[in-house]
From TrEMBL:
Keywords: DNA-binding, Repressor, Transcription, Transcription regulation
SUPFAM superfamilies the record matches: Homeodomain-like, Tetracyclin repressor-like, C-terminal domain
Gene3D superfamilies noted in UniProt: Tetracycline Repressor, domain 2
Name of the molecule in the record: HTH tetR-type domain-containing protein
HTH tetR-type domain sequence ranges: 8-68
Superkingdom, taxonomy of origin: Bacteria
Record feature DNA-binding region, as residue ranges: 31-50
Signal peptide: none
InterPro entries to which the protein is assigned, alphabetical: BetI_C (IPR039538), Homeodomain-like_sf (IPR009057), HTH-type_TetR-like_transc_reg (IPR050109), HTH_TetR (IPR001647), Tet_transcr_reg_TetR-rel_C_sf (IPR036271)
Record organism: Streptomyces virginiae
PROSITE patterns the record matches: HTH_TETR_2
Amino acid sequence: MTKAERALETRERILTAACEVIADIGFENVSMRKVAEHAGVSKALLHYHFDTREKLFAEAMTHSFAQTGTDTDADAEGGSVPAAVVLARILRSMLPSDAELRQDWKLWQELWVRAQRDAAARHLAVDLYDQLHAWVGGAVERGIRSGEFADCDVAALSTLVMALCDGLGIRLMLDDPGVDLATARSTIWRTIAPTLAVDPTFPQI
C-alpha cells in the first residue's frame, strides 16, 4: 500500500468513526479525542486530516451522503433496471429503513439543528438537498425519456418526494406507531403514481 493509499484509508476510517460517534451521542457532545479513539488513531493524526470539529462534521456528512443509495441502478442480471424500480430504490434509501440508514438520519437531524444557527451548516444542508433533488429528478427524467412515466413537472415532483420522505422519515425515527416502513413507502408511491401514470402499488425492489 502506498503512502497516499494509507492516508486515504485512514481518512475513510476517521470519517466512518465520526459518523458513528456523532449519530450515537450528538455533535455537541463529540470531541476530537472521542473520534480519534473510536477510529483507532492518535489525536495528532486526526488533526492532521481535520483541524476542527466543524470541518470533521461537514466531511462526515458528505461522506455519509456519498454512501447512500449507491446501488439504485444495479441489476444482478446485468440488464436494464426499470425507472420505477430505480425511483423506488431511491425512496428506500431516503427513508430510515435499516440500521445504517437510521444512522444517516441521525446525522441529518444533527445537521438540521446546527443549520439553524450556523451558516456553514446551513449551506451544507442546502447543497445536500440540491443533490437529493437532482438524484430524484434524474430518475424521473429517465422514466419520462423511456416512456415509463408520463411527462410532468420534474422539479415539482422531486420536491414533493423529498418533502414526503422527510415528514414520514421523522415519524419512523420516532417509532411512531401510526407509521411503519411499508405505510410510508406506499403513501409516497400512491401520492406520486397518478402524476407518473404508473401502478399505485410500490414496486418490488
